[in-house]
Design a protein that fits this description.
The structure is a homodimer of 384-residue chains.
Chain A lengths: L6 E4 L3 H12 L4 E4 L7 H4 L3 E2 L10 H25 L10 E5 L2 H16 L5 E3 L1 H7 L9 E5 L3 E2 L2 H14 L19 E4 L5 H5 L4 E11 L11 E6 L2 E7 L4 E5 L12 H14 L7 E12 L6 E4 L6 E5 L9 H14 L36 H7 L1
Parallel strand pairs in A: 1-2, 1-8, 4-10, 8-15
Antiparallel strand pairs in A: 3-7, 4-6, 5-6, 9-12, 9-13, 10-11, 11-12, 14-15
Helix pairs in contact in A: 1-6, 1-9, 3-6, 3-9
GO molecular function (chains A, B): flavin adenine dinucleotide binding; glycine oxidase activity
InterPro entries (chains A, B): FAD-dep_OxRdtase (IPR006076), FAD/NAD-bd_sf (IPR036188), Gly_oxidase_ThiO (IPR012727)
Organism (chains A, B): Micromonospora halophytica
Chain lengths: 384, 384
């Protein structure tokens, strides 16, 4: 590249690639740095677009952002399909939330009463109504509800599509890793490096391990069920995400650990809950067991906006369990910030400065510099 | 090879390689044909040397052969270690047979009473005695017994050692598969091709699928237990084989199927039984789930001896669940037959002719021919 890029995105997961696509579509010169695109949390993620089933007590502002991003997903998906020319498994059958035992159902009911109180679309169903929708559910499932707006997408295919769209719009992916922000030369740097953002920025992003299984229906038939099933089974929370190609994703553990080993106990718990909820899954092939690291934050909400003390550096990380659903809103808001220098009010609860100044002793937290000739003081002012 | 080999072994699993080693050590020119040595049932096998715990009702003659071969294992292992120059995980701590519930214990007791009746060494233990030997056992294990003579070996390392010993003794392994016996040119052909023997010989060898897991202790420590544990857990039969390098093999299903898919239900049943018996296994990494095909026969006993109607062809297959423990006696008896033309009386119950003539319509059942100048009429006479 002969001229300095307008935007350098560090991290080619869905968030980074979507930002690159959106910025390149606005006419900016964009590079994306990632030695292994799509190899982070998204490679393991199930891809539920679940503003409702992911709305938990005490996370009002996050729930609002989830709902906002989920509302943007249909338009985002349509644009992306056209821009990328490939499919990525966006499905809109909705999600069933079910409880296996009466204790499980009581737990699920507590949560969906809260979700209903927020005005989110979730409708309780009688067991017979559940089984009318999904005959594959175990007869002993005690009850549930439907969240018709909780959809799904295949994250691995999403990465392929986003990369294609970004490259078609002119973004480039030079090889090689980025060890320090000081190594990046661009007018604006966007750190969308998932857990890697901690080392690059000093922000409090920690790895949260998730173990996930991938099953496949025998003879490559489609799975016996079409809805995403979010189940509580003997105290275990599990989700089952059916894909058209026969895959069923079963997830996920949430562990405060930084290793990516697959453990016997986690596989046992996931399989037991899955087979308790949908007995036919016992006949499915177990084709993959994997573990990924979600980028968690102190309040479980993402970190979106200018990095304090680092003019020209934006952050888009900390998406924790919600990276896929939050991809459209993250890309829109960060792109707007890059292009106009103006922060959308939606960003306010999620800016990096809510955690105080980044850890200045961190080796990766060196200033970006020296500023090149294209450096714009407007952005620096706006972001700091 | 300029001259016709004395012996061509078809199949480089433990049985075929042990025969090759023994024959080459006797001064014969030996070739072993296998496009992928060690890739059959032995690659999945756990490697229990269990004449006692594998003695089932109605299998007297097989039990005798198991006991005979197990008795030969210590000498075989010592010779092999010297000949191969590599270790293969031969361990002699013995086997604990345990029952989780009182029903499981009743089932286990029925079997070990039968085994005691045959004079096999198995001694009941009180729960406190069990836990003195293996504190890792779950507190709710109701009781068990010890079979001190039931040992173990690592089949993957055994294949490496046997191949090394065979090659050091002069055997060669030319590349490429053998599709028909007629393609093999040797004075004597030994079919030790596991399930592949059916197509080559027309004998009634069928695949019996087994699914097996491999766990690994965290931080590559040795497992928390030293004995092989053969357990009955809520009606599920499972074995746990600890290796010095931290591996624990958990097996195995016995399924009348010919595919090698790993299924969710099998992994669930194996893990549940394993963790019920030794709870700490939940913390172990699940490093491999695999399926292999055992060569089963109508009476579950191996097929050892001359192939009817095919002068110069011997068979050593059909070892089903017992290929590893039966390797020494199989190699000794087949080698003796090759060298002297005399059949040891031990072979009598296991010769191929007990199933009548092989399926003559089978494409692989063509005669070996034409007989070359080294062809020996003695063997032909003895074997037919």
């Amino acid at each position: 590249m002969l001229t300095r890029p307008d935007v350098a995105v560090v991290g080619a997961g869905p968030v980074g690639l979507a930002i690159a696509w959106r910025c390149a579509s606005r006419g900016l010169r964009v590079v994306v740095h990632d030695p292994a695109p799509g190899s982070g949390a998204s490679h393991v993620a199930a891809g539920m677009l679940s503003p409702v089933a992911e709305a938990y007590f005490g996370e009002h502002e996050l729930t609002g952002l989830l709902a906002e991003s989920a509302a943007r997903w249909p338009g985002f998906a349509a644009e992306l399909a056209q821009a990328a020319g490939v499919e990525f498994g966006h499905r809109t059958e909705g999600t069933l939330v079910v409880g296996l035992t009466s204790d499980d159902l009581a737990e699920a009911r507590r949560l969906w009463s809260y979700q209903q109180g927020l005005g989110l679309p979730i409708t309780p169903l009688r067991p017979s109504q559940l089984r009318d929708r999904e005959p594959a559910l175990a007869p002993r499932v005690r009850g549930g509800a439907v969240a018709p707006g909780d959809h799904q997408v295949d994250p691995r295919r999403l990465v392929v599509a986003l990369r294609s769209a970004a490259e078609r719009a002119g973004a480039t992916l030079p090889p090689g890793p980025v060890a320090r922000l000081a190594d990046v030369d661009a007018r604006v740097t966007v750190v969308a490096a998932g857990c890697g953002a901690a080392a690059l920025t000093g922000l409090p992003v920690r790895p949260v391990k998730g173990q996930v299984l991938r099953l496949r229906a025998p003879d490559r038939a489609a799975p016996d069920f079409r809805h995403v099933i979010r189940g509580y089974a003997d105290g275990e929370s599990v989700y089952l995400v059916p894909r058209a190609d026969g895959e069923v994703v079963v997830g996920a553990t949430v562990e405060e650990r930084a290793d990516t080993e697959v453990t016997a106990g986690a596989v046992l718990r996931l399989l037991r809950a899955a087979v308790d909820l949908v007995p036919d899954l016992a006949e499915y092939d177990l084709v993959e067991a994997s573990a990924g690291l979600r980028p968690g934050t102190p309040d479980n909400a993402p970190i979106l906006g200018p990095l304090p003390g680092h003019p020209g550096v934006l952050v888009a990380t900390g998406h924790h369990r919600h990276g896929i659903v939050l991809t459209p809103v993250t890309a829109d808001l960060i792109t707007e910030l890059v292009v106009t220098g103006e922060a959308d009010p939606l960003l306010a609860p999620f800016t990096p400065d809510r955690f105080g100044p980044p850890d200045a002793t961190h080796p990766g937290s060196a200033r970006v510099g020296p500023a090149g000739p294209e450096s714009s003081t407007e952005e620096e002012r706006t972001w700091n």
